[in-house]
Structures are given as C-alpha cells and as structure tokens.
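[audit] Reproducing an earlier prediction to check determinism. Same input, same settings, fresh worker. If the tokens differ from the archived copy the diff job will pick it up downstream; this log only records the rerun itself.
[audit] input (115 residues):
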Amino acid sequence: MQNPLPPCPGTPNCERESRPFPGQSPKGLFEKAQDALGDLGPGRFTLRDDERRVDAVFRVALIFKDDVSVAVTPGANDDGGAVLHIRSASRAGKSDFGVNRRRVRRFFRALENAT
C-alpha cells in the first residue's frame, strides 16, 4: 500500500498514516472522507476529485497553519476495497505538542462514524 502523500520530515510535528477499507469503493470512501475532514473544524479546502484528494489548511492558535491532505486509492486486493491516506503537518516549528497526531485520530473516528 503505497502512500501518495509526501513523507513526514524527521520532526514530531507531522503525522502520516494509511489504512485499508475492504469492501469500500474508492469513490464512496472519498465522499465520506470529505465529510470527516469537514468535521475537524473550519479550514480552507481544495478538492481534487480527479485524484480523489483533498488538501486543507487549518489554523491553530490564530497564527499557526497546519496542512492536512487526504487521498483515497484503490485497494491492492480483488475485494474492491480502497485505501485512505492522510498527512497532517505543522508549517512551522519542530514540535506541535501532539496536535497533528490527535487530528489524525479525530479524523479516523469521524470517518468510522460515517462508514
């Protein structure tokens, strides 16, 4: 399962994860992922339907910006499943006190509630 999103740098202010969703169509999972991303709060979203990808910018403490990307790819098996990839990273600094890790966990909880 190859993640199409950029790798995290060697600093703790970035979280990147991929999870398979057997039995989910890539299109259906992408629609649910958009809803789950919107549940994380206000942000600026750029939707790229043709790539099944969403890029978002969230503000933290009014001055810091975090970049979040979500991409959905077809699963590697013949089950018609899909794989969801997410990356959440702070633009500045080296530590984020776990903000991006918690954001990714909240995203997956919101996604599980939608599936």
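[audit] rerun output stored. Observation attached for the diff report: The chain has a mean pLDDT of 89.
[audit] end
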